[in-house]
Automatic annotation (TrEMBL):
This is histidine kinase. The gene is sdeK. It catalyses: ATP + protein L-histidine = ADP + protein N-phospho-L-histidine. Pfam families: HATPase_c (PF02518), HisKA (PF00512), PAS_4 (PF08448). SUPFAM superfamilies: ATPase domain of HSP90 chaperone/DNA topoisomerase II/histidine kinase, Homodimeric domain of signal transducing histidine kinase, PYP-like sensor domain (PAS domain). Residues 283-502 form the Histidine kinase domain. It comes from the Bacteria. The keyword Hydrolase does not apply.
Length: 513
């Protein structure tokens, strides 16, 4: 606020009426502003040695006055000694000398700490008019803002992620060292330029498309790929969003880009290694089939001889049993490979009676578990279009697990429920300890075997841990689903639900093999 008017005579100054004339007529003075009129006090040689207060408002009395008496008619340095060290006195002297207004920030010490004041000094005929405004809170806010800015700047500068800001025209206005490193350029070569200027229109097209999408939607979005980040020789995980002013208008775009090149390469290497392992397992399983078949044919031929000595017969029978077990393992490996690499286990569906399949599997497994009995319950029609061999695998695996984990002298219940004309349900229930909660999420994962219950002997033949995985794949290939419920009170129940009609993979509906 400029105050170029004259104070007038000394009588007006001593009465205090000169303040209003020095303030002007605009009427925009803040109510909390201190106003004081000061008259020069000169030495014998004409130098200014102090200022005498001619008039002052209540704020000036509080900020400049002493503890006793009024500020008016007293000298500035006597009432406010801090004016000398705080810079206020020198500012008043400069205004008197130059006859030009001046604005300065001055400070004084108080019991509460440093107090900052904004001093606006205007020349008058025989002194100055001084306006003081308290800046302490504003200065504290500015200092806090400056500290926050310095902290944020330090974080951005030291971040390993590429962080940048663009204006609405796509020009870089802020970058950190990681961004400059991604472009392989110095910061001065990037700031003020667009991606098209830095990379060329074709290479910058994905990045510009992402920017337009975020700017048009106004929502933060995440992208990942070799295109769309700073530079084009890395794979980036990028988060982009808009910057808004207080009124909601968009003035820029920010991005945080993390280099995930090493992670993606490791993922690709692991995927390739897994594919190689699965191919190896498939080839191994296929190549083992022929020699195992030869072993089983030879053992069968030997066992068919009536003249075979008993001790040799026992050895050959042991060979045949081991070869049979190896053949089952090879079959599981082949099924695993088909499920993982061939798009699922292939099916050959035709009309099947589920009850007949269950009775066949029960008759095969019961002799190996004489300590348990199996009860079959049939409720409704049990015919449908399924793959009979694959259903035999499902039932053999579920029933074999149930017999293995059932307490001695207990029974296993197999129930066929067909109340729904569209679906067939098969339940295999056994008693004994429940499945541990920690194992349930991995129960149908490949190469995962269920350990024996505490106090129970380890199974004589430990499998590959593929049984339940293959069961789940066969059920899925039929278009069905598999459930399991297990508790200490009710035991364990595996439930298979199958659609009444299953079509082969890729075949037309209703066509059966």
């Amino acid at each position: 606020m400029a105050h170029n008017g004259s104070i007038g005579g000394h009588a007006d100054m001593s009465s205090g009426r000169g303040i209003n004339r020095c303030q002007g007529t605009e009427g925009d003075e803040p109510l909390s502003e201190a106003v004081v009129v000061l008259r020069n006090v000169r030495s014998a040689v004409g130098g200014i040695v102090d200022f005498e207060c001619v008039s002052a408002n209540v704020h000036a009395e509080r900020w400049l006055g002493g503890e006793e008496g009024s500020l008016v008619h007293n000298r500035l340095l006597e009432e406010a000694p801090w004016a000398w060290d705080g810079g206020l006195f020198s500012a008043c002297v400069r205004v008197v000398t130059r006859r030009a207004p001046e604005i300065a920030r001055v400070s004084r010490q108080s019991p509460m700490g440093t107090v900052w004041l904004l001093a606006r000094v205007s020349p008058c005929d025989d002194g100055v008019v001084l306006f003081l405004e308290d800046l302490t809170e504003r200065m504290a806010a500015e200092e806090a803002l400056r500290r926050d800015h310095d902290l944020l700047h330090a974080v951005i500068e030291s971040a390993t992620d590429a962080i940048y800001v663009k204006d609405v025209s796509g020009r870089y206005i802020l970058i950190n060292p990681a961004t400059a490193s991604a472009f392989h350029r110095a910061p001065r070569e990037i700031l003020g330029r667009t991606d098209a200027e830095l990379l060329g229109a074709d290479r910058a097209a994905p990045t510009l498309a992402h920017d337009r999408e975020v700017m048009s939607s106004g929502h933060t979005a995440t992208y990942e790929g070799a295109e769309g980040g700073p530079g084009t020789d890395r794979i980036w995980h990028t988060t982009k969003g808009v910057l808004r002013r207080g009124d909601g208008t968009v003035y820029g775009l920010f991005a945080i880009c993390r280099d995930v090149t090493a992670r993606r390469r490791q993922e690709l290497e692991r995927e390739e290694e897994a594919r190689f392992q699965e191919r190896f397992i498939g080839v191994l399983g296929h190549d083992l089939g022929n020699p195992l078949a030869a072993v089983r044919l030879s053992s069968a031929a030997l066992l068919a001889r009536d003249t075979l000595p008993p001790e040799v017969r026992r050895v050959v029978a042991r060979i045949d049993g081991s070869a049979e077990r190896m053949a089952r393992l090879v079959k599981q490996l082949l099924d695993f490979t088909r499920a993982r690499m061939a798009g699922g286990i292939p099916l050959r569906p035709h009309e099947v009676c589920m009850e007949d399949v269950c009775r066949r599997i029960i008759s095969e497994l019961e002799p190996a578990h004489p300590e348990c009995c199996v009860r079959l319950e049939v409720d409704g029609e049990s015919r449908g279009i399924w793959d009979e061999e694959r259903l035999g695998q499902v039932l053999s695996n579920l029933l074999g697990n149930a017999l293995q984990h059932s307490p001695e002298g207990s029974s296993v219940r197999v129930r066929l429920a067909a109340k729904d004309s569209l679906f067939q349900r098969v339940e295999v229930h056994n008693g004994g300890p429940p499945i541990p909660e920690s194992l349930r999420p991995r129960l149908f994962s490949p190469f995962h075997g269920v350990p024996p219950e505490p106090g129970q002997p380890k199974p004589k033949h430990q499998g590959l841990g593929l049984g339940l995985y293959i069961v789940s794949q066969i059920v899925t290939a039929h278009g069905g689903w598999l459930d399991v419920a297990s508790s200490a009170d009710t035991g364990t129940c595996f439930s298979v639900t199958l659609p009444r009609v299953t079509r082969p993979l890729g075949g037309p509906p209703g066509k059966t093999a």
